[in-house]
Structure to design on (255 residues):
């Protein structure tokens, strides 16, 4: 395998220099973390599953006009993506009370929201990704008003589409978090595009009949059978690799 320069390493993925200018290779690890990085673990095969699930969802979103950084899947653990300037704001869309929403407002887990609730978080793990307002985002220069509006509109479109897609396979989309980036075109235009990934790592997914959790909450709350839950999501989407996930060695990292 050709040696490639590592650009960035996060909790669940590594970014490498791509084969062409303006591209990156996104490598999915089996590492996982939760509770603001206080809990760590390895889920065998998670990277393979998340790569396939995220590819499928990104492609489906592109089909309805949602711009993304995704270009194509390279192998079982890697994707070719467009290089973007990440906006340091995570957007959460919540359809059902779960996670921090339950803790902050004393809601019963599973309570349906009267409408989808959108929240903004400053992407900074050292500060535990704090909840912020539009005033914070604009005051600190993380994004302009027009960019916030674009991210909000895209997030609601994503929510509508994914809610219907998962409903069709017996899964409730409880909530999800997404990130966006600025894609700079040769023409000088700047486009806001969906970045990072879409998978059970950043989506809460519950079985419609049993409310069984099918996402990273199984790791977060020591429920067990984490890999099996991710596999079931992939199976229902029709994209589980034959013979299950298989291991690929990480790429060689240049010094």
């Amino acid at each position: 395998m050709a040696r490639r320069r590592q650009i960035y390493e996060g909790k669940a993925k590594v970014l490498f220099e791509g084969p062409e200018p303006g591209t990156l290779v996104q490598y999915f690890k089996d590492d996982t973390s939760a509770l603001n990085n206080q809990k760590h673990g390895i889920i065998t095969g998670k990277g393979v599953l998340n790569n396939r699930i995220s590819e499928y969802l990104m492609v489906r979103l592109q089909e309805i006009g949602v711009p993304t950084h995704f270009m194509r899947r390279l192998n079982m653990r890697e994707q070719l993506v467009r290089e973007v300037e990440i906006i340091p704001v995570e957007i959460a869309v919540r359809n059902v009370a779960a996670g921090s929403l339950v803790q902050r407002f004393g809601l019963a887990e599973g309570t349906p929201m009267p409408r989808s609730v959108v929240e903004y978080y400053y992407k900074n793990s050292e500060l535990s990704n704090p909840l912020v307002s539009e005033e914070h985002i604009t005051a600190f220069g993380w994004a302009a008003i027009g960019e916030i509006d674009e991210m909000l509109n895209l997030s609601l479109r994503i929510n509508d589409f994914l809610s219907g897609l998962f409903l069709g396979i017996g899964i409730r989309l409880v909530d999800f978090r997404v990130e966006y980036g600025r894609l700079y075109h040769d023409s000088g235009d700047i486009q806001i595009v969906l970045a990072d990934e879409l998978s059970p790592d950043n989506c809460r997914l519950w079985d419609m009949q049993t409310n069984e959790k099918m996402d990273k909450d199984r790791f977060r709350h020591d429920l067990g059978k984490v890999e099996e839950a991710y596999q079931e999501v992939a199976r229902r989407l029709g994209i589980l690799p034959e013979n299950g996930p298989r291991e690929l060695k990480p790429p060689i990292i240049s010094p």
